[in-house]
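Residues determine shape. Next comes a sample protein:
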Amino acid sequence: MSGSLKLITLIEKHADPIAHSWAKDVRKNARTASYHDMPEEKLVPLAIRFYDNFRKMFYTDKPAETSREFFARYAEEQYTAKIPLHEAIYALILMRRHIWLYAEFQVIFITAVEQKYAVDSLVRTILMFDYAITFMSRRYQELIRGELNDRLALLNMIRLESPLGTRLTPYRTAIMTALLLGSFLLTYYYHAVMGSNVIFTHLFYIPVVLAGIWWKRKGVVMAAVLGIFLILSHLFFLGGTPLTDDIVRAVMFLVIGTVVAFLSEGITTAEEIYRLKAM
């Protein structure tokens, strides 16, 4: 293992220049554009921390378990810094590349035996970085799912869905039934009791919008029911007054209900695609 030990010793003794070399590379490499505006003093400690932990991850009998925590933390830092996953992975690949570039520059593997150890070290290093990419990708997915759930929390509240996507159908039905009864009673009161056609129908948009959000295209039926009831009530109780205004309102119920339904379907589709990408 003398060849491997040479590599580890080189990394530990020269972590600072290797890290600076990596930082300069990552700040100008076309494949790591998100790092270009990062100050070098912020990038260098990131690489030094990796190189300082290299021995521990290199010599362990369980490289996966040993490196999991480190690379999960690395993924969290890159995600918080808004670094795309593919750029974070390539930056990690550059860390590995600069180890070997520096080792080659120092000419530490001279004899045939040392060159054999160099190959063994390279294989071991590649294995470690394979684990790194796996753990980083997994952690990025977890962070994306968490952020998605946070952003959709308010929408899920309006849609009466649990964080796991379970629809609370009984609550929806109860709320919509209460809103419909309220709308019918309000219409009866103003048309039959008050004999008035004042604009009280703005309140009807609440069940219209909720129905579109909850049941999407099927929710348009609710808008149609309210519109038909409004027109029939007008004909029955206010037969001597113009029907034009209530017809316009009924049409607007359908328009708003349809628009909300299609928007709700679009949001649901986008959410599903987003979740699939995060899996």
In short: The chain has a mean pLDDT of 81. The two ends are 40 Å apart (CA to CA).
